[in-house]
Design a protein that fits this description.
four-stranded antiparallel β-sheet; 11 strands; five-stranded mixed β-sheet; alpha/beta; single chain; about 280 residues; about 25% strand; 2 domains; 7 helices; Alpha-Beta Plaits; elongated
Length: about 280
């Protein structure tokens, strides 16, 4: 005689399971807070700059994508973790996010809120230079500026010793239809041990800049260029990966007919981690 299959759980039973999971998640978050509190006591004032840890955060977000499965959208999971990480970072060392809204105010606000939540104060500026200057005057604030276009060479102020640097490129995880897809650089001061140097960013000033030089350089690196009419040249922000080097960039500029006036390292960040069009594994 065959046995009857077990009856499916009732809605009430399933809701009890959800309530138990919610309570467990809340307790774990409070436990995380207790650990952060102990971490603050250990750190005291040993570290300078913001508590932002771009190397650790980039690795955490990559791990999250790689282990994610099921029906819960990756956008939701990433945004939850971004709020958790950023809020606990803020609890360790309060900071503000200074955002350049000159390119697109809605897109920049989406990026700031997605990556830093609503607890971290958000300050809008009408130029990248103003956002970076605000960070330079602060102890550990962050600036968000467009990573793909600019009206002014705001990165020139990062050349000086002791100035803030580019420490991250957001979003950490790129994919189609990302809710905060606008590529932005995060600029701040952090401890050297917190940096990730998979991609180095250089401020390069050249003479003899033209369309042909730009075309010669484009296959080698990601570049933001602002014309400098006074010197018939340009101020470049060049992102260099391990596949090339700043020396190769300089050689390519010279071979294309430009003159390199100066080169300065102004930051670094993790390589772009791209999710295939099919999404995370399930």
């Amino acid at each position: 005689m065959s046995q009857r299959p077990p009856a499916p759980p009732s809605l009430q039973e399933l809701r009890k399971e959800i309530d138990a999971i919610d309570e467990g998640m809340h307790r774990l978050l409070m436990q995380r807070g207790d650990i952060i509190d102990r971490l603050i006591q250990v750190k005291q004032t040993q570290e300078v700059g913001s508590a932002f840890r771009p190397a650790r955060e980039a690795a955490m977000m990559r791990d999250l994508v790689q282990r994610h499965r099921g029906i819960l959208p990756l956008d939701t999971v990433e945004s939850i973790w971004r709020v958790i990480i950023s809020t606990f970072t803020y609890v360790q060392a309060p900071f503000s996010v200074h955002a350049d809204v000159s390119v697109s105010e809605p897109a920049m606000r989406d990026s700031a809120r997605f990556h830093f939540g609503f607890t971290v104060p958000y300050v809008a500026h009408f130029s990248a230079q103003a956002a970076v200057e605000a960070v330079a005057k602060s102890k550990g604030d962050l600036a968000l500026v467009s990573a793909t276009s600019s009206r002014t060479p705001w990165w020139l102020s990062l050349e000086q010793e002791g100035a803030p640097k580019i420490i991250a490129r957001l979003p950490f995880v790129e994919r189609a239809d990302h809710p905060a897809a606008m590529p932005v650089f995060a600029v701040s001061r952090v401890a050297d041990s917190a940096l990730v140097t998979e991609v180095e960013t250089f401020s390069v000033r050249v003479s003899g800049w033209n369309a042909e030089v730009a075309r010669a350089l484009s296959p080698l690196a990601e570049i933001v260029a602002v014309p400098d009419t006074a010197f018939d040249g340009a101020a470049l922000l060049v992102s260099v990966t391990g596949a090339t080097s700043i020396d190769k960039i300089k050689s390519a500029l010279i071979e294309a007919g430009a003159s390199v006036r100066s080169v300065a390292l102004v930051g670094s960040h993790a390589t772009r981690y791209t999710v295939p069009p099919t999404g995370a594994k399930s």
